[in-house]
UniProtKB/TrEMBL annotation:
<keyword id="KW-1133">Transmembrane helix</keyword>
<dbReference type="GO" id="GO:0015225">
    <property type="term" value="F:biotin transmembrane transporter activity"/>
</dbReference>
<keyword id="KW-0472">Membrane</keyword>
<keyword id="KW-1003">Cell membrane</keyword>
<keyword id="KW-0813">Transport</keyword>
<dbReference type="GO" id="GO:0005886">
    <property type="term" value="C:plasma membrane"/>
</dbReference>
<feature type="transmembrane region" description="Helical">
    <location>
        <begin position="150"/>
        <end position="173"/>
    </location>
</feature>
<dbReference type="Pfam" id="PF02632">
    <property type="entry name" value="BioY"/>
</dbReference>
<feature type="transmembrane region" description="Helical">
    <location>
        <begin position="56"/>
        <end position="75"/>
    </location>
</feature>
<dbReference type="InterPro" id="IPR003784">
    <property type="entry name" value="BioY"/>
</dbReference>
<keyword id="KW-0812">Transmembrane</keyword>
<protein>
    <recommendedName>
        <fullName>Biotin transporter</fullName>
    </recommendedName>
</protein>
<comment type="similarity">
    <text>Belongs to the BioY family.</text>
</comment>
<feature type="transmembrane region" description="Helical">
    <location>
        <begin position="123"/>
        <end position="144"/>
    </location>
</feature>
<feature type="transmembrane region" description="Helical">
    <location>
        <begin position="81"/>
        <end position="102"/>
    </location>
</feature>
Length: 175
């Protein structure tokens, strides 16, 4: 009984820490038309790499739920369910899809390659999920071509830099 209760407290602490991380990362923002550049995706990748599938999933779900309930925890201290109905809603939903995909990629590649390659591919797969969900939803507002132009192309370089920095930092910290 004690172990289960202790484990539950530990998992809850991890989830709350992840929610706080996502909140803080979302406030580091460069506003652009339709979709701002934030560090949320970096937080999502870190959570997807360092926590179990269950903890990662519930962390992102809790973050999204709190934001949907109106807590100002999304970019620029915004919140409310209407954010999910706006142009950036798909990216937020993509965060949840990303941690699921990252976990699966890690699981599939666990015995096939080293941590550097596994983490890199996992982050790239998670980032791809965020873009697929985000651009698909944004296309409802501005059309697919324009969604790709404003919701994907400006983020390619910054997305790759985030993946590289995160994976490099994790490798360095491992030593």
């Amino acid at each position: 009984m004690f172990t289960t209760q202790s484990s539950s407290k530990s998992t809850l602490a991890e989830i709350l820490s992840c929610v706080l991380l996502l909140f803080l990362m979302s406030q580091i923002s460069i506003p652009l038309q339709h979709v701002p550049i934030t560090l949320q995706s970096l937080g999502v990748m870190l959570i997807g790499l360092k926590f179990s599938r269950r903890t990662a999933f519930y962390s992102v779900l809790t973050y999204l739920s709190l934001g949907a309930a109106g807590l100002p925890i999304f970019a620029d201290f915004s919140g409310g369910y209407h954010i999910f109905l706006g142009p950036t809603g798909g990216y937020l939903v993509g965060f949840l899809a990303a941690v699921i995909v990252m976990s699966k990629v890690n699981e599939l590649l666990n015995s096939k390659c080293g941590p550097l390659m596994r983490n890199s591919l996992s982050c790239l797969a998670g980032t791809a999920m965020i873009y697929i969900c985000g651009v698909s939803w944004l296309a409802i507002y501005v059309g697919l071509k324009q969604a790709a132009m404003v919701g994907f192309l400006p983020f390619i370089l910054s997305g790759l830099v985030k993946v590289f920095l995160l994976v490099a930092a994790l490798q360095y910290l491992k030593k």
